[in-house]
Structures are given as C-alpha cells and as structure tokens.
Amino acid sequence: MEISVIGGGLAGVEAAYQIARLGGNATLYEMRPRAKTPVHKSDLLGELVCSNSLKSMDILNAHGLLKEELRRLDSIVIKIADETAIPGGRALVVDRDRFAARLTEEVEKNPAIHVVRQEITSIPGGTVIIASGPLTSDPLADEIIRLTNAGNLHFYDAISPIVDAESIDREKAFYASRYGKSEAGDYLNCPLTREEYDAFHDALISAEKMELKDFENTAYFEGCLPVEVLAERGKKTLAFGPMKPVGLYDPRDGKRPYAVVQLRKENASGNMLNLVGFQTKMKYPEQERVFRMVPALKNTVFLRYGSIHRNTYVNAPLCLNEKLQLRAAERVFLAGQITGVEGYLESTLMGLMAGISAFVSDRGKTFFPPPASTCAGALIRYLTTENKHFQPMNINFGLFEGYSKKTKEASVERCLADIRTWKIHILSSALEKNTLSC
Fold it and tell me: N or C: which end of the chain has fewer CB within 10 A?
C-alpha cells in the first residue's frame, strides 16, 4: 500500500524519501506548476523561498546539532545541502538553485516515489502525510480545520531582497566577518554613519507597506520580523539588531561603523547577494528608494524584492499526538511547518519523523519518538505538551531534557548517543530484518 504525501517542500520530500528508504512506496503530491503560490519562482521540489542559510554548523549550537542529528538519521535534505554548500562563514549556506534541482533529481529518479503534479483539495483515503507547508491552499486548510476541530492559526513571514553583486559600490563597502571568525569574503558590509542611519531609520518608518487584506491582526514570528516592524520598536533597535556593527572594522580607516547592512552570497558564483536580516513588507518601489539610501547600495539592482507571505500551522498541543498523527484522524499525519515548528531543518526533521511514523503505523507496528534529549524528541515534546499560548518554535537547547549550560558538551554527546540508540530500536521494531546502516 502506498502512503500519500501532500506537499513537495522540504518536509514532504524528506517524508517520502524515508518511506522509500525503509522499503515502502510513497505518492508525493505537489501542486506546482499547475497551481502557483505568491513566493515560489520554480516548479522544483524543496525550493527555498526565504533565506538560503540553514544556520550554524557548530555542533555546540542547537542548530548545528540538529544538522548532525539529521545526518545520522540519513536525511536526504541535509545530504543535498552538504553537497550544494557555498561559503557562508560558520553557517551552512546553499546555492538555492542547485539545491532544489538536486533534490528534485534524487526524488524523481527514486522508483519507490511517485511524484504527481496535482493540487489536493480533499484528503485522500489511506495513510496520509500532510506536509503542505506555510502556503497551504485554502481548500486543504479548510479540510484540516474540519478534521482538527481546533481551528487553524496564521501568521506572516517576510523574506529579504536579493541584489545584483555587480551593482554595489565596492568603494563604499568592505568584506569582513564579525571578529574575523570566518572567511572575510563571506560577508560584504555596507557601513552607515549615524546621520545616514537616522535618515534610513526614518525612511523605513514612513515607507508605504503592503496591506494585508485578509487579516486585521497580524502575528509575526519573532525570529523573522520585517525590518520596518523592528524599526518601529525604537530608534536604535536596528543598530542593536540586524545592523549592529560589533566585531566589524572598516579596513579603510580601522574604525567601527555606526551601523552596517550585511550582504551574503545567494549562490556559488556570488553574483546574487542577500540583504541579511532585511525581510520586509514595503512596497517594491519603496524598497528601491529606502535601501538605496545606504551609500554602497545607491545604484543597486534588485534581482528579487522582499515580500511577505502567509504561514499556516495548527494548534499542535490540541491536534497532534507524539506520533505526529491528528488526534481526530489517526490515519492522517502532519509534517513540517504546519505542525508548529519554525525553520527549514526543523521542518525537515518533522518530515523525517512523520515519514518513519507513517511507515511504521502502516505496517501495524508501534512508533515511539526519540527521547527529549534529542532534537527530534525535544521538538515533538514541545508540539504535544499542553500550552495555552502555543506559538511556532525553532530548535534551541531550552527544549532539551536535562540541559544545562554548564554541561553543554555532555548534552550534545547524550543527544547523539540517544539518537543512535533510538534509530537502532525503531528500525528493529519496524522491519522484520534491519538491513539499514545505524
């Protein structure tokens, strides 16, 4: 029997791959290109629509540990990310086009995964994984609302502009990483004096913004706030946030700027640069006017404007059990951002877990999540623990069972040991003969 997976983003691709890897068959439904979304530019699976950074690679950082956990669980997403990585300091940054192309290639050539380009407006029969992501279509969202009886929550994410590297005035910019902790060429810094910063801040505050017609009360995720929302919180908020100059010194005069705009490579060739931390809901002409107030960006050419998009997720503590099944319909599993996790690889991890859980369930076996000392277990515990003020969550050490700053190294070792043990046990219980490497 085939397991249906709805959504060809990171979580859906990972879920389908895990089902196939375990010996099952998956039908992966992706509505693009037949149906469009406000932010996708191609019909490739796993297209990254926000930043091309997958965050820290430091294993003593929760995001770095998450990557290592995914590697040890044989994630296809992290495998392709590693293959298509480009320089990004201490972060895992990928060439977004190569990444999506390689992921699509791997999925489409897998004989156990049947890719169907079709919009799903009603949940099919049998075992189903919904990994429709932050841009879940209205008909499918209505189906989820009907099944959960708990309502659907919405918030908005904003994405940063991408500019042409050749259009930047290099005489008014300099390459450097904070405190020199990574390759100097990883970030191009555009400095501002205090007077230039004040004028830039005032322009952000007064710029025309995109209006959100469908929802009057917009709840943004704190980790992805539009830059103008940050600016509204105080004159110096940006100078202590995405424009902070700490650890940066202009080699032309040896001084620290009052503020900087940092640019990061979007692809291997470096001809596309992302304005780091400058996700925005300004109208397109306003983006050109305001961002060109930064001296080095005076004549910059925009390759992609910043934009705002909807993110859809369920009230997980009310809707999900620890197997990532809907409490009201246990044949239906959720994966990715729709579960209430936030972040590319957090979504990927939930896709991996849902794929394994659905495979195990489909064969009449019992799925049990990893312990809360692991990234997967900590996130699943967060999603399924009663919480009257539930909001999406990134991975962080505060979620881990028994974590202490004083014993961080021990917590990391415990995580990796526990995920290995869990992998052995879950595969042994799910398969009559475990032929997969552990």
Answer: N
Domain residue spans of the chain: 2-156+312-430, 161-305
Q: Look up the CATH architecture of domain 161-305.
A: Beta Barrel (2.40)
For residue 244 the two structure tokens come to 């902070």
Which residues, at least 6 apart from 295, have a Cβ–Cβ distance to it below 8 Å? Answer: 169, 172, 190, 191, 192, 196
β-partners of residue 191 are 260
Q: How far apart are CA 56 and CA 66, in angstroms?
A: 10
Nearest Cα to Cα of residue 261 among 157, 170, 173: 173
The answer to whether the bond into 33 is cis (omega within 30° of 0) is yes
**Tokens of residue 84, six digits:** 């298509």
Q: What is the DSSP letter of 220?
A: B
As a CATH number, domain 2-156+312-430 is 3.50.50.60
